[in-house]
Amino acid sequence: MEQELVQEPAPLAPQQPTKPWIRFWARYFDYLSHAILISILWILIDFDSFLQINDNLLGFILLVAFVFLDALYMYFWGTTPGKKLLNIKVLDADGTRMPKSLAFKRARLVWLRGMGLGVGILEIIANIVGYRRLKKEGITSWDQELGLQVIHGKIGIFRMLLTPFIVVLLLGIAVYGMI
């Protein structure tokens, strides 16, 4: 008698606690640090054009650059500098780094659903909706749609306090630079 082999599905990874504030600080650490670095490079290359550009257009250009850089980080390392600082990885369903197409799709969805395209009130609404969904369902809409898993490692109190401080400092630098 031939025995039929039935393959059992792989056990799901244990559900991790959601950490929306940790993810928020990581995202804005990445965005603000890159916005400032790109602005500094622009100033070094062509100071006059930087002074003449419309603030809204500059903000849009910096956000598009951030989306592109975020996707590259996620593709090559499975994390970004802010996520690395707070010990967060975003991986494919099989636990590996996501392919390039998925990394770029995730970055666009984060820009749209998580950051409200960077447009004032839309950004605030997107952050609130994302926070509530993550707390209620344990996963963001973009990560669920793309079949991704977010892994939070342990972080010490120093990193937990340092990152928001740096974000506020970077925001202060950015705002001061616009005055």
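(the above was protein one; protein two follows)
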Amino acid sequence: MQTKLNILPLHGEGKCDLSAVREKVKKKQDKMKRYTDHKRGAHNPLFDAGGRVRIRLLRATPKGHPRYSAPVRVEKRVGTNTFLLSDGKKWNAAHLAYSPGLTVCASNALQQTHNTTHSSVKVSRMRREPIWHKDYVIK
């Protein structure tokens, strides 16, 4: 076997123990995975089953259109970075964003506040005189 990792004994030294070879390869792979993840800034997603997420839509969304879908519930975690959503689709965590869930009561209260009429009086803003008027006398 030809690899950068010296796992087999030299020719003529005897038999090699396969379990020791597997363990050595596993240790080396784990070390390289930790190194690569640290360099790339990789992290595990923090989504839990029952949490709400939004799906990032296509890269080029037209101006004024939403970049994320409506909130969807996470049913379960399928793989390390793969989640099954309530719409039945599997998504990688790179395409998901955490969404704090609004309850139905909160959204109804929000609608009620917008429907009520408020007597709004426009307040005039305070304005300073321009600096160049200091030297001139205004009558």
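Reviewer note on protein two: The two ends are 98 Å apart (CA to CA).
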